[in-house]
Amino acid sequence: MARLTIDRAQKRFGTYTALDEVSLAVEDGEFVAVLGASGCGKTTLLRQIAGFDKLDGGSITIGDRLVSSDTQHVPPEHRKIGIVFQSYALWPHMSVAENVAYGLTVAGVRDPERARRVAAALDLVGLSGFADRRPGLLSGGQRQRVALARCLVTEPSLVLLDEPLANLDVHLRASMEEEFSRFHERTGTTMVYITHDQAEAMALADRIAVMDRGRLLQLATPSMLYREPANATVAGFIGDGMVLPATVLSGPDAGRCKVRVLGVEAVVRCRPDQTAGDNAKICLRARDIGIAAANGTGIAAHVERLSYQGGFFRMEARPVANPNMLLHLDVPEPTPAEPGGTITLAISDGWVIPAETVADLAA
Ligand SMILES: Nc1ncnc2c1ncn2[C@@H]1O[C@H](COP(=O)(O)OP(=O)(O)OP(=O)(O)O)[C@@H](O)[C@H]1O
């Protein structure tokens, strides 16, 4: 197991900067998900960690060993890294046991040591009874478990997972998520998990690194990302956040600021160093907006759409005074208004997004 330190990693393809000064420290035994939309640079980052490409600037250290820098490039096979790909990449003509044994055979490990380690790895992923099967006769989830066993058997110091569940159906994904979690708990292996699926990242990771256009925007626990997004991009990307212009009326008191938003005053969470002033932005979640009390003041809005979510409705509504904005909130059955009707909304919570400076990397 090893700590992974990426320091100001740069990667360019021609004039395009795919990695722009990415710095990231993954603790020994930690499970970090790298999350971002397609094209944000996740795979490029993984390829630098694995050593498939050379960096244009910065450095990567695994444990105490500098593996990538201007002057150093340790080849992939000498980095003690295990990789699990979306495509499984199993040999179709070999049995499950032979596939798992492959890395050991290449490394010169012989029986009975090799057979013992293969059996232990298959046991770890719950596939002991499948040693003699060909991969073609396994389900997608079982194939991914073989790929995991094959990666583990070499006792890597770091495991990289590149969208490993992307080819599986929804039900299998959920059970494989549990499998990865249990596996991480049992082995304590340092893991970096690439995904564009935030539910998957939230369910699995100790911390999530959110990337956008080659930059790391925030590295934080799932709950911190949700509660305290560092900037408007993270706020909008994670948890369907609504980002609204606001004025901070008074500075923090017990972690909360008074703000004016959509013409009403509200008390929301903020950083201890938040200052009063115009041009602020706040992030609201669906749960931060509710129906105002009868005769209470609030935000008059036209109901545009209702969609049933099972037990409640997701309502979309446009403020009468700001019709270019679309708010969403969850309302119980029976719904308090129908599409075309008007409703008064109240804000119960929210987060003042810190002024955009450097990405806040504090967890
Ligand atoms: N070898 C290459 N040559 C030129 N451009 C590249 C190369 N590899 C990646 N890119 C570009 O770098 C950017 C980041 O690509 P990358 O594959 O890292 O994104 P990603 O976040 O993994 O996306 P996805 O989720 O779709 O796999 C993209 O704009 C891509 O087109």
UniProtKB/TrEMBL annotation:
Residues 4-238 form the ABC transporter domain. It is a peripheral membrane protein. The keyword Nucleotide-binding applies. SMART domains: AAA. GO terms for cellular component: ATP-binding cassette (ABC) transporter complex. The keyword Aminoacyl-tRNA synthetase does not apply. One of its GO terms (molecular function) is ATP binding. Pfam families: ABC_tran. It is found in: Cell inner membrane. Its main location: membrane. Keywords: ATP-binding, Nucleotide-binding, Transport. Belongs to the ABC transporter superfamily. This is Carbohydrate ABC transporter ATP-binding protein, CUT1 family. It comes from Bosea lathyri.
